[in-house]
Amino acid sequence: MGRGVRCAGMEGLFVYGTLRFPEVLRVLLGRVPDMRPATATGWSVRALPGKVYPGLVADPDGVARGLVMTGLTEDERRLLDAFEGDSYEPIVITLDDGRRARAYLWKAPTEPYEWDVERFAREELSAFADGCRMWRRAFT
């Protein structure tokens, strides 16, 4: 539990934060890939200091809830890797149902509490999607 390996191959992508929102995916990818609910025991989706988005961290007592996105093209995967940036490391984790999926592991300090997905959706999503739109226009 809570163990990951460096990412290789084209597993599905476990999304636990902003990438689970269709509004963000439409801006970044121009579409919403297929997604199914998933959980990963041994991981937590933590709030980050001064950020509206979360980070996935190993946590022996945690359960990360999210979605598994499938059907990404290689170009879409590269775009998402660039979007997530150097503060995240793509790894492969094992989900509770036994599937393996890529996930973005946060590499810096976090808050000691879970990220509030409902609060993000209610208070931050619109402005975040606007920021993604600007990032996408600049990405080449």
Automatic annotation (TrEMBL):
The record, for CDD domains, names: GGCT_like (cd06661)
Task: Provide this UniProt record's keywords sorted from A to Z.
Answer: Transferase
Q: Does the keyword Transferase apply?
A: yes
Q: Which Gene3D superfamilies match?
A: Gamma-glutamyl cyclotransferase-like (3.10.490.10)
Q: Which InterPro entries match?
A: AIG2-like, AIG2-like_dom, GGCT-like, GGCT-like_sf
| Gamma-glutamylcyclotransferase AIG2-like domain span | 13-108
Q: What is this protein called?
A: Putative gamma-glutamylcyclotransferase
What species is given as this protein's source? Actinomadura keratinilytica
